[in-house]
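ok so for the tutorial part 2 we go from a plain amino acid sequence to predicted structure tokens. step 1 is just haveing the sequence, like this:
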Amino acid sequence: MALTDDSTTSSTNSGGIAGALSALNSASTNIKNAWDSSGGSQALGSIQSSLPQGTKDYLADAQNKVFNRKNLRSPTVFFGLGEEKPFYLERVPSLITERVKHNLSFFYLNYALLTALLFCLTLLISPSAIIGIGLLGFAWMAVIRATAEGSVQIKGITITQKQATIAMGAFSVMVLIWLLAHIFWWTVSTSGFLTGVHCLLRDASMHKDEEDRVEMQGDLSLDEESTFLNSGADVGTMA
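step 2 — the prediction. this is what the tokens look like for a chain of 239 residues:
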């Protein structure tokens, strides 16, 4: 009887998680469709096109540098697997400051990924947040259906689809802030603690010169007649 109850509870939880994930997917799809239909993409495109070319190049370069896949360190490097002493507490204040600065610049993408994973995991185990996001998705569906013909009338007042989308977007932001406030602060505090411990204890000094490494390309063919190889021998002979 106990095994039956456990299996029933497990299947119920699995069904609830699956339904919540489906609601999240539906909500994101509806919000994207509403954003596109309201002309948000066109407005954003016009803003981007009005930027000076120098600003565009600077933003594109910064984006490529910050989110460069090469800056995401492997678990071997992140945890120092195979190193003799990857974690230890430095006692000299100047060396501690130098270590923290280097780790923040070297592992920043790993820390960001850790924060995102903690946020997603916390969201999955928060039923109230999942239910709220699901209800928000259904609200978006209702707004989209009501304004499918371009506008809707409420007590004699005509509301266009663009106005309804803007109002719904503002309402969604306030609801998400209210729903995700505790998840956000828990994620920030937990990831901040883990990041601080890793920054303080991880000795990644052996990777400091990795960004200065130069990749050699091309063929270098040397023979016995090369001048710079024989210069030492010539000097010895003259002496």
